[in-house]
Design brief:
Helix content of chain A is 32%, strand content 22%. Chain A is α+β, with helices and mostly antiparallel strands and 407 residues long. Chain A has four domains: 154 residues, DNA primase, PRIM domain, CATH 3.90.920.10; 35 residues; 96 residues, Orthogonal Bundle (Helicase, Ruva Protein, domain 3); 45 residues. The radius of gyration of chain A is 25 Å and the shape is globular. Chain B has 360 residues and is an alpha+beta fold. Chain B has a four-stranded antiparallel β-sheet. The longest helix of chain B is centred in the first third of the chain and has 20 residues. The radius of gyration of chain B is 25 Å and the shape is globular. Classes of the chains: A alpha+beta (407), B alpha+beta (360).
Chain lengths: 407, 360
Amino acid sequence: MHEIVRKEFSKYYSGLAAEDLAVPDMQQREFAFLQFGGEVMIRHMKFLEPKTLKDYIVENTPAHIYHSSAYYKTPEAADMNEKGWNGADLVFDVDSDHIRTECKVRHDVWHCMECGQEGAGFPPESCPRCRMKKIDTRAWICEDCLEAAKKEVIKIIDEYLVPDFGVADSDFEVFFSGHRGYHIHVRSEALRMLSGDGRREIADYVRGIGLDIRSHGFREIKKEVLIGPDMKDGGWRGRIARAVYEFVNRASLEDLKKVVAPGVAKSLFDNKERFLKNIESDPPYWGGLKGYTQESLEKIALASIKDLICNIDERVTIDSKRLIRCPNSLHGKSGLRTLRVDYSGIDSFDPLKEAVAFRHGSIRIYVKEAPRVRIGDEELGPLKDRTLEVPLALGLYLICRGAAEPR
Amino acid sequence: MSLMLTKEDLAKYPFLKQSAAYIESMQLNLSDLAAGDYSGILHKALSRIRDCIDKTVRPTDLSDPDSEILSYPLSLALVYGSKSNWLLNRFATIEAKRVEEELRREPGDKILEVAKSGFSWEIEHANLKLEYEDLPFSIPVQSYLEAAASFNDAHWKLVNRYVKGGRVFLNSGSLARLVSEGFKAKIIRRSSERDLQNFRLPQVLAPHLDEILRYAQDNMQFVEELPQGLVSDARPPCIVAIMEDVRAGKSLSHMARFALTTFMVNVGESVDEVLKIFGNVADFDEGKAKYQIEHIAGKIGSRTKYSPPKCDVLRSFGLCVGMDEYCRSVKHPLSYYRKRLKSMGAPGGKTGARDRKKGV
């Protein structure tokens, strides 16, 4: 990495108040660092207070700074078995890379490392030409990607964490990761001691993995007579009921035909109002349509909940000893800050503006190739093979991304 | 405490705080219990263990609650003293089954009382009435996940439970099952604690332990040795799917690679055979692959032979391609393999070598 980036990072950290680097219960956390150009993580560090952490960072200027999601009795022990694991925050990682947004066609390209086939947009699982799974991607982020990630965060919190898991407002924090997405740190004591298996169950819960519709109250008591959940029910039970209601309410005949047999689709479409009214009634009634069985209902339910399933990197949630980025540290691949987001104001939060760490100065760079990029209020590109003077934050962003060099 | 637990309850549910306190109040040690005055108790303890060995689940004998209560610690001491994991697991399983059956006959309030006294789960009355189903109890999510961790059926998965406000809502039957499983876990967990690691049975009980072990010997089933080499027809669907990807030359995710390698190594394929399978993969690097397979097989490095990930993990990583009838009763790809082999007749009937010629 270029010396200029290191120098600017160092300046940033020097100007920071030590308190800005505080991490809750920091004496029980392990800290870890990745140096510029380094491949090996410096691990098992313990800091008693933000001041000593700041001093270390200013002296060493790492490219990436992490702390453990876990609480340890002896965080500095080099052997994981000797650290004395004492619980961990429950972490959700939402990464815009994993979300199929339409904007990806505008800024992402992939190519097959086997046959050379290329394409734009979200990378296919295997190459459409040679079927091989060796796909290389060059992904960028834009406002739309980050907006999609933000929607996922809101979904996880409002749809699952608060109502189902009873997580209080004071028990979680949301962070912009400084690059492609968001992290949610849940610090509820009631969930702190979850094992890896328990965490996997929670990840599966928000991803709808293993969801069995029949476990949620649907029963065919006799032919074409179906009972099912109430929209007022809690958990997945009510969620499925509400989702089916919404889906059928919005669906065209064509939409329904994509999900169930044409005859059932027609019957459902023609009797839509009655069907919806029955679901709304107390107690709800789910049947009474000709040709309509529990199986068709299951198909509709599965189609309905697609948008309610959360897009997270499950490996992060499952891991009870994850290293995660420190608040207000810089992301070495963007030069942006890992920034705490006030959840009540998340709708108007603009990560590409508020996470900008370098607010003054400019830099002359040579850009190899970049799509349209915005950092702060400055926009640039798409451009290729150009040398120009840009605001410092934008320049460092492109350098950190590997798309530009200082001149 | 809202309900009084009777002496009969202490006999039925030996994991209760009150049971332990009662036993302690008798101020008897193990050698006392082996003495002639208490021969009834010793007799009960021995038949309790024999029932477990026979997989006989009998209702608790309440004709003499005192000796029933005291027979539990004595039988447990014999089981711990045997240092046999087989006996320990069998004892814990059958005792837990007995407890579950007892609980299912109890009114809801009693189940709650027992659960509260036996475990630190913060169970509460919920009184949630749904269409065609009442869920009268709730338990914190974390406690639920701890207690139900070993359950296999889809309906125990958190995503298929009624979860609200940080609590999981349960009917009486589910709570009875959680309690009995918690009891089983307690028995097994306790055996690995330090004081029990060094536990020696008093000399007077040694002849009785010998008797139990002789009895067990006739019933003990040792884990059958798997035939060497892969039997294709016994592969679980997830492994079949990964192997099809391999055959198509697709490159695999790290988890898919790990699952396939560990599976192959565990069914007795050699490192070279596993290497051959991977030869078709897009980004194949023989040197690197060989090193990794040898590592997984425990031939180099930490010398631990790795097991394939269990079904839950494969499911989370999107490698479960859907269950077939065998999948429903197992939670690990190797258990699936064993089960299929068994259903196909004696292991070794099909030899791996013959099978391999078919090419997979």
